[in-house]
Specification:
alpha+beta, single chain, 6 strands, 26% helix, 2 domains, Immunoglobulin-like, four-stranded mixed beta sheet, 117 residues
């Protein structure tokens, strides 16, 4: 039975392998940090109605809608002014909509006009 001779790996090759592993791990960490920062800083907006989702008034009663606000991804009110569409006719009994939109976001408030008692 012949015994094979153990040939040690050259030290230079071992150092290069460890250096390559270190660089790969470092690049992975940098990639994760960049991905986190991109996601964190992405502007995701939220649309909120100011006041109630449903409001009741009587015929001929004046109604001033408080509107809505656009919040940034940290929950702070922005200076952005959303579009508001309101089909309210306070001279006729019925249910009307006030729709607030910003980009693909939309919120609706229902305004019920009731008869005078």
């Amino acid at each position: 039975m012949e015994i094979e001779e153990f040939v040690p790996v050259k030290k230079d090759l071992t150092k290069k392998i460890y250096l390559l592993r270190f660089i790969i791990i470092l690049l992975m960490i940098i990639t994760l940090i960049i991905a986190y920062l991109i996601i964190k800083n992405k502007k995701g907006y939220k649309l909120n109605l100011v006041g109630e989702n449903e409001v009741s008034i009587h015929i001929n009663e004046e109604y001033n809608d408080p509107g809505c606000e656009v919040l940034d991804n940290d929950g702070y009110i922005t200076e952005i002014k959303p579009k508001i569409k309101n089909d309210l006719d306070n001279k006729k009994v019925g249910t009307y909509k006030m729709t607030c939109t910003y980009k693909k976001l939309s919120k609706t408030r229902y305004i019920h006009v009731l008869p005078n008692e």
